[in-house]
Design goal:
Layout (H helix, E strand, L loop, with lengths): L3 H15 L5 H6 L4 H11 L8 H19 L4 H14 L6 H16 L3 H34 L8 H18 L1 H20 L3 H29 L12 H11 L29 H11 L4 H24 L1 H5 L13 H17 L22
Helix pairs in contact: 1-9, 3-7, 4-5, 5-10, 7-9, 12-13, 13-15
Length: 376
Amino acid sequence: MQDRSGIRRAAHVGWVLGALASTQAAAQEQPSTAPSLERLAKTAEALAQWGPWEEQAAWIDRSMTRVWERNGWSDEPDRFALETMRGVATIPPWKIFDRLEFMTSRARERYGLSDVQAANLKQSVMTETATLFARHAPTIVRQINEQTRLRLEAEDDEGLMKEIQANVARWMQDTEPLHRDAMEAFARVTSAFESGLTPEQKRKFAADRKTIDKLTRHGEQLRAEGLAGRFDPEAWGMSREEFTGWLREVSLHGPGGVRRGEGAVAAAPPRWQAHVPSTWRYYVEDVTRRSSFDAAQIKAADSILTELAERADRHLLAQRKVLDAVDPAARASHEAMKPVLDLFESLKNRLDALRRREQKDDPAGPPQPRPSGGTP
């Protein structure tokens, strides 16, 4: 969503259209497409206004993983698709050629493509992507500009959801022609790609094509819900609590933390909460910064965070129905949340164990929790 939906939509289009392609060198060999792709990359740089891409990528990665788990997509082609999309998500969307290079490498390894097959795929994808941007540039530029400058007025979570649902419906309506052309372009790319495969490669691609079709149908369902004004962050792998908290942090404040309609600068509270695992990275960042961790300590801290956050996510997934019935304001203290809180305490203790004696004498003290009731 870009709002989160926008970022994820950009990643999805890059994956669906990209189905796999290209390097900077290849772009230089295609003078008719390279300028359009370079203009697209320049336009996408506006997405950097949402903050460091590493933070955005972490949200996207966690959300996609949750979507796969909740839908039970666990076959080998499903896992390949997820790993590919997770890899793409780590690359900023304005680095189009890097994304295409990554996807080309995945396709080459997956199907054992020859140099000629890879070159044909690159040319096909680059041509279609450049054509789409040339045809729909006004819409793409307009939406990116609007979404990166989005400010919402509602003060309560329900009001925020209604506002964003209305915006998502309008954005999706606005992109109907782009969506239609993108799907047609994807069909041409996959048809051309498949026709150039050997019988053995076609058998491999047939299994992957089933997964692609499944993901496309799922995307169409989400799009239909969005068009109808029923956008739900849960379907995108985020709880409403996480989503509205993120909106409050990013969308309700202008540059420098000035809230719309106010002249004062709002003090930024800590961004982590013990019962929201997707925010624990902020706690880890605070600890590593305050304690001046070295590279080895940071690597160990990241490993601990990954392990414990994944365990917490699995528990929350298993308890989803229970927690969905609980008022958001009461979830942090609900009995079903206790294992998550215990895992957070384990995170704190294991990070503390990483600190050397001289690093434990920090006069600023340990990071302080975000006030109860809010979400980052």
